[in-house]
What does this fold into?
Amino acid sequence: MRIIASGLRFPEGPIWTSDGSVLLVEIERKTLSRVRPDGRVEVVAQMDGGPNGAAVGPDGRIFITNNGGFGWIREGNTLRTGLQPPDYQGGSIDIVDPKTGKIKRLYDSCDGRRLVGPNDLVFDTHGEFWFSDLGKRRAQDMDLGGIYYAKADGGGVRQVVGGMVTTNGIGLSPDGKILYAAETIPGRLWAFEIIGPGELRKAPWPSLYGGWLVAGLPGETRFDSLAVSASGNICVAALTACAVVEICPDGNRIRHHAAPDLMVTNICFGGPELRQAYITLSYQGQLAVADWYEPGLRLAHEI
It folds into this structure.
């Protein structure tokens, strides 16, 4: 593993681009930033709230899940997230033009209710996207999270799964028939069968959310965002486990790839053959890259 850039302020949502750069958000800095191959960091857009996840949309613009902001705990040169900040106004889905830095707000509510903490997103082959809402934690209570499906042109958003506990990373199987979602605090990875654009086949009770549990790890393993490999394995950033946890679709094989940070938050695949893993190490504010033994899954849209 090689460190490409340091001094980032809680990086997340990496996107590898064809010029070798990596776009990512810096949540505490409230920016969409570009990390050049030589490690130089450039601000693409200054944003409000807390830009958390990022994905390339069908028109080449960058869609951002904005969590509305965190409270922050600084320890020396490190950062970790805290509770809901006093100036919190709600979350949103924003779009950034990477050429101009212009920002457009696409959604901030669903069915008359404010989005709470949008976290991660993934586009399907229909040009629309799934996104997770983590919810928000306060000193004595918390908002539950869920999964949403939204039109990229602003034509509508709806909740598909509700009542989840800190819904975080989200991704699709190589054939687009399975939706994966990770929960942070429980350390669980769920799968749902997709039967149409924005439609899931819900399993009846006693299924907790209508999906099935792929894996739940013991101890203090907390799941963050994820990426899927070309073979279909789900690679989940595992925060304080200091690792990327690779899980096969049936949950029977689990492999830990060590990463030197207490808040491993996200992973994307890049390079000409998608055989490099770009990993955000958010506690120390670094972006790392490592050779991966197989290619990552090619996403629906690239730049």
